[in-house]
Amino acid sequence: MDLAEIFRVMCRRWYVLVPGLLLTAGLTVGAWLLVPVSYESQSTVAMLNSRKGAEADGNPFLSMEPSLTGMADSLARNVNSDVSAAELKSQGLTGKYEAKIADNAQGPLLWLTVTGEDPDAVLRGNKTLMAFTAQRLKDLQADQKVSPDSMIRITTIVPPQDPEAKLKSKVQYLVMAAGLGIVLSLVATFFAEARRRGRSPRKHRQDPDTEQTGLAAEPDRTPGPRPAPTAAGPARQADLAGHLTDGLLTGTDAPDTHDSHDTHAPHAEAERDRPGGEREQQPDQPTVQLPVLPAAERRPAKRPPSWVK
Predict the structure, then answer these.
(1) How far apart are CA 132 and CA 79, in angstroms?
(2) Co-location of 187 and 83 in the same domain
(3) Is the pLDDT of residue 20 over 50?
């Protein structure tokens, strides 16, 4: 099935396709109205060396050791745990959040992301998450009896950003609703076409003998045995052959070979009288019918040339 045939089927079954497309439009609009818009706010923090470790040059950004990156990863895993999630929820963070090492970071940088449907709640949640992360870093070091001067510090690199609408998830739902509606509409259209073709009457095949006239041959439904072919004796056959030959030579009409007496007499017996008064029954022989040309096609026999003796 090519594109032209598909288009013709869609045009023929428009009463199935159009309601399906309208239903698809309704599903798309419903998905747009029902699926909420998601907002996201992000901030960035960095791990700094302790005050005691930065006494040499007095600048903590110049003394970022590789161990700070490992500490940043450990802190992110602790913040993403279920225990931390329960504590953050008790502090008012209702949206989804995530703490991870920043992509393509060349230092101990952490991304703190909060997602939710209310932009104001998302912004407050990001500030709460930053404060919780700083406190969790202190608690982890305090559990190991680290002195305050040797503790790793945390600083804000990027403050919580204004929430931005994330339409990716909403667009995905819209595309899914539209695609599902279109597919179902096309399936219903071709299903209706298939049922229509299945119920249409089938054309009867014509016999080769009646193909030119366009009429189907009707079978012989006459009860009883069929009449046997007419038999004629040798005298009758010779008489018919003589008449036909004379008609062809003279151009006159030949006698009708289908005699009513010979045709309708089934199993006719040719009999010949015997000298003693008895009749001799001749065996049945099939009727010999010679072709009779119409009067328009009969031509007189050509006379031989004069030089032929």
Answers:
(1) 8
(2) no
(3) yes
Q: Domain for residue 218, yes or no?
A: no
- 21 token code pair: 């497309």
The string of DSSP codes covering 209-276 is: TTTTTT-PPPP----SPPPPPPB--HHHHHHHHHHHHHHHHH-PPPPPSS-HHHHSSTT---EEE-TT
Q: Please state the rounded mean pLDDT for residues 161-178.
A: 85
Amino acid identity of residue 84, one-letter, is: S
105 in Cβ contact with 137 (< 8 Å) = no
- CA 220, 225, 227, 231 torsion-angle sign: positive
Residue in the structure block whose two tokens are 């030949």:
254
153 bridge partner residues? 48
User: What's the pLDDT at 127?
Assistant: 93
pLDDT at 304: 67
How many structural domains is the chain composed of? 3
Nearest to 270 by CA among 288, 285, 258: 285
Q: Does 224 fall in a domain?
A: no
Write the pLDDT tens digit of every residue in 221-242: 555 555 544 544 555 555 555 5
Residue 214 lies in a domain: no
CA gap 187, 66 in Å, rounded: 60
pLDDT at 292 over 70: no
Cβ atoms 228, 267 nearer than 8 A: yes
For residue 49 the two structure tokens come to 């060396």
In a domain, 264, yes or no: no
188 and 108 in a common domain? no
Phi, psi of 158 (to 5 degrees): -125, 120
Q: What is the mean pLDDT of the chain?
A: 75
Phi, psi for residue 113 in degrees, rounded to 5: -120, 135
Question: 128 is in which domain, residue-wise?
Answer: 38-166
pTM of the full predicted structure? Answer: 0.53
Domain CATH number, residue 135: 3.30.70.1130
For residue 183, the number of C-alpha atoms closer than 13 Å in the C-beta half-sphere is: 6
